[in-house]
Amino acid sequence: MGRIKEKIAEIEGYLDELEEFMPDDIDEYLHDAKTKAACERYFEKITEAMVDLAFLIITDKGLKQPEDDKGAFGALAKEKIISKELAERLKNAKGMRNIIAHQYGIVDNEIVFHSITGELVEDAEDYLKSVSKAYRK
Fold first, then answer.
1. Domain CATH for 13
2. Predicted confidence (pLDDT) per residue in 70-81, tens digit
């Protein structure tokens, strides 16, 4: 349980740090290379930490190890730790993280901006609430 709490705190810290770099609008994101790079890096860090947390929970609960990172969120949904809808959004975030990190194809900066400034923070907060609630039982 200690490692799970540490990982939750790590994600919360990354979210706080991301807030410091969060651009006000798409123009600021597109025209400030440092802001764009910082936001993309925090997107990667938050997403990876959420995957790590999923695997810590899977191990802690003695669940079957999934075949891949995206499967970890599905495993948590199957156990009703997170909703199926949230699991799908987190799988999509993991996919977006791979696109950013590995520059697969052409990156649509507008989609990345909206993912970082809207969806990621909300989904990460929902994820942490769901995990915390599951561990209070």
1. 1.20.120.580
2. 899 999 999 999
